[in-house]
Design a protein that fits this description.
The chain is of the alpha+beta class and about 375 residues long. It has helices at about 1-10, 60-80, 125-140, 160-175, 185-190, 200-205, 245-255, 275-285, 295-320, 330-350, 350-355, 360; strands spanning about 20-25, 30-40, 45-50, 90, 100, 105-110, 210-215, 220-225, 230-235, 240. The longest helix has 28 residues, at about 295-320.
Length: about 375
């Protein structure tokens, strides 16, 4: 029954041949992603049901993606790149020319599957270096997008002032009666609050500009070819205006963590500075051309900022009674909070080392 629905949805798109089978694909947590097998056995398309509860403005979402992929495609053509269909995502219009299909309940889109590609969840220095180059090149190609070309698919996603306001609202309401047990963590968050809102203040002062960010810079959001070379950046739903600190910061937070995001033992959690340095070397190879000296000097701060932000978000959700993040065991959000705070402390301990690493790029 479900397969029949999928085939009906696919019939709304301008496909090159007949689909015969639709099966689950990948391990994404937001959208429903399916592999489409064609008559003849070729896996040619990817069908996705967009999670419109998270991405509430689907029209903006798809226009953003169309703008970004079109811009990258032109840059690749100008470079004289070959095999461009493997180096940028290609989304298909519907037969009526729309960027997505709405069936009355759900929103759907189709893109070409990139053949002979693979992704990795493993994080080591080699992959971190390649990830840095890929995300730096991605930002570099989009650096000349005019202001206003993209909308915010998730408003205030990495706005620290906004996240602290949500936190303070939770403190005042204390809806689950949990505030008393986390007062020590609340104190740690409050004493760092002012220093963690620097980017918003610098933006208002005209010293820091918004750029086009990916906002989900995990190594598994990059596709590699058979030789382990980068093909393209994928998962473009969160591509939107923001600060460059967000992208490098999120990679540091997720990839340079020696423990798990929800590690029960905070002693496992520390920053791996070799991963940070490998990513930064790759990133600066491709991103230095458009970054300002202030942005370069603040890149390590981005790791502290995004880790602090996630600490705040997990604790806010715990205080609110676990209403946003899915929890899988008792006090899961509190465990996550403590693990993120431990990573933040490790980043603070290594701050001078990481900040000093950027001097090479500032002085060259």
């Amino acid at each position: 029954m479900r397969e029949k629905l999928y085939l009906q949805i696919l019939n709304e798109f301008d496909l090159s041949s007949k689909p015969v089978e639709v099966t689950p694909f990948g391990n994404g947590h937001i959208n429903d992603t399916l592999k489409v097998t064609m008559d003849g056995g070729e896996d040619k398309y990817v069908l996705q049901r967009i999670n419109h509860h998270i991405f509430t403005n689907v029209d903006m979402l798809q226009r953003n993606i169309h703008t970004v992929t079109s811009h990258i495609r032109k840059k690749l053509e100008t470079r004289g790149e070959r095999d461009i269909l493997r180096k940028v995502l290609t989304f298909l219009p519907t037969k009526s020319g729309s960027l997505y299909h709405f069936d009355g309940e759900s929103y759907w889109r189709v893109c070409l599957m990139i053949p002979r590609s693979r992704s990795f969840d493993e994080v080591n220095e080699a992959f971190s270096y390649e990830a840095g180059k890929a995300f730096g090149d991605f930002q570099s190609m989009l650096a000349d997008l005019p202001e206003g070309a993209l909308g915010e698919t998730i408003p205030n996603f990495h706005n620290m002032e906004f996240r602290l306001q949500q936190f303070h609202d939770a403190l005042k309401a204390d809806p689950a009666g949990r505030l008393a047990e986390v007062e020590d963590l609340v104190g740690e968050i409050e004493k760092r609050a002012e220093s963690m809102c620097i980017q918003e203040r610098l933006y208002r002062e005209g010293k820091l500009k918004k750029r086009t960010n990916h906002c989900d810079t995990k190594v598994n959001n990059i596709l590699f070819d058979e030789q382990g070379k980068v093909l393209c950046v994928i998962d473009l739903d969160t591509v939107m205006p923001g600060f460059v600190l967000s992208d490098i910061g999120d990679f540091i937070r997720t990839a340079a963590n020696t423990g798990a995001e929800d590690d029960d033992n905070p002693e496992h959690v520390n920053v791996n500075t070799d991963i940070f340095k490998a990513y930064t070397r790759g990133y600066m190879e491709t991103a230095k051309s458009f970054l300002t000296p202030l942005e370069i000097s603040m890149l390590p701060y981005g790791g502290r900022l995004l880790t602090y932000m996630q600490t705040v978000r997990f604790l806010t959700d715990y205080i609110n009674g676990d209403t946003y993040y899915k929890v899988h065991r008792p006090k899961h959000n509190l465990i996550r909070t403590k693990a993120q705070f431990k990573l933040l402390q490790s980043l603070e301990i290594h701050a001078n080392e990481m900040d000093g690493f950027m001097d090479t790029y500032l002085n060259s």
